[in-house]
């Protein structure tokens, strides 16, 4: 499985708590973060408010694209 490296900046207190969770569970910090991010993304995929915002964003970008194409 291919992965993508990312930089994550956390406040020191949050980083310490994250490290504590990983240590207690006998897991890597990266594994705990991946699980948390996957849960967030899955929740957003079921969130009607988020999906509506996404549709609005796509529509806005479509209007901008059309406007730029019309100016040429």
Distance separating the two termini: 43 Å
Question: How large is the count of helical segments?
Answer: 3
Structural class of the secondary elements? mainly alpha
How much β-strand is present in the residues? under 5%
Biggest sheet details: none
The helix/strand series, from N terminus to C terminus, equals HHH
Mean pLDDT: 95
Note the overall shape. Answer: elongated
Low-pLDDT stretches:
none
Proportion in helices: over 70%
Task: Write down the Rg.
Answer: 19 Å
Question: Domains counted in the coordinates: how many?
Answer: 1
Number of strands: 0
Walkthrough of the structure:
With 72 residues, the chain is an all-alpha fold. The chain has one domain (12-70). Helix content is 75%, strand content 0%. The protein has helices at residues 12-25, 29-45, 48-70. The radius of gyration is 19 Å and the shape is elongated. The N and C termini lie far apart (43 Å). The mean pLDDT is 95.
